[in-house]
Backbone:
């Protein structure tokens, strides 16, 4: 199983260059990927966590990371699709894929912060329908020389769209969420399922549902990439739950290894670890511990 790292662009770092340096550190210690998340306003729990501190734009951060790294993959956990116009998002992602020599993993979702939707003038009730249409539109924009698409919200015809992504047919799409709507979206569009706040048992229970949904779409579930975003915390009280019931990667080093092994056994191909701190040195220490104490044992 691979390990990724959620960059702290959402933790209130004052200097974004510290975040870029942490991406370089993640690559240097051997992690497979770095990921950024998205909120446009300081909404609800974001406001509680950050107050007046910044929350950086995810694809801008990854563009800077692309210029300072060579091998680490660049993921989003997740881009909130209904907040975006498909051609602009499609061009930005394609440009990043070119800049990084084909290292983009596009994690997508719909978010639950209704107040952000209100501020953006986007109907919260249609977010799922919009997300599905945007994914359809992106696939057309990335694969057709002269994209032809007509939906309820978005329509394109008669004009060339460029650049196309480096990866063919386009960067892997990792659909976030664990609701039935998210699972159906994964079955229809996903190259991967990228979830959070799930235990190994939760994942184990949902994979047969995903397989059935994918087969209904005429797709092979064996190729679906399963990834998880989960918090990691060393040296917290030892976990009392069984590994298959844990949603947080915490406790002693042995607990952490045990939990990650449980995720791997449940079918996860990659776990993206998130560190709740705005101290660069703290992140560096955790990355070192992951590299030296955890990675050799999973």
Residues:
């Amino acid at each position: 199983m691979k390990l990724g790292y959620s960059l702290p662009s959402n933790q209130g770092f004052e200097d974004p260059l510290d975040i870029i340096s942490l991406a370089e550190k993640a690559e240097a210690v051997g992690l497979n990927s770095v990921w950024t998340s998205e909120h446009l306003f300081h909404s609800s729990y974001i406001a509680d966590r950050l107050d007046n501190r910044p929350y950086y734009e995810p694809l801008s951060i990854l563009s800077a990371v692309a210029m300072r790294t060579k091998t680490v993959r660049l993921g989003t956990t997740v881009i909130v699709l209904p907040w975006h116009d498909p051609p602009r998002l499609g061009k930005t992602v394609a440009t990043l894929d070119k800049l990084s020599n084909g290292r983009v993993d596009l994690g997508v979702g719909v978010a639950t912060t209704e107040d952000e939707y209100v501020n953006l003038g986007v109907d919260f009730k249609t977010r799922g329908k919009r997300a599905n249409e945007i994914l359809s539109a992106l696939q057309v924009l990335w694969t057709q020389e002269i994209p032809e698409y007509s939906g309820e919200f978005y329509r394109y015809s008669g004009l060339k769209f460029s650049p196309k992504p480096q990866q063919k047919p386009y960067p892997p799409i990792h659909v976030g969420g664990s609701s039935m709507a998210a699972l159906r979206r994964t079955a229809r569009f996903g190259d991967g399922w990228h979830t959070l706040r799930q235990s190994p048992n939760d994942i184990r229970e949902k994979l047969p549902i995903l397989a059935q949904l994918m087969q209904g779409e005429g797709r092979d579930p064996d190729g679906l990439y399963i990834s998880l975003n989960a918090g990691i915390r060393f040296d917290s009280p030892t976990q009392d739950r069984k590994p298959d019931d844990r949603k947080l990667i915490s406790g002693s080093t042995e607990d952490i290894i045990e939990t990650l092994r449980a995720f791997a056994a449940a079918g996860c191909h990659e776990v993206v670890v998130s560190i709740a701190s705005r101290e660069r040195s703290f992140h560096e220490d955790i990355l070192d511990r992951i590299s030296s104490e955890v990675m050799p044992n999973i």
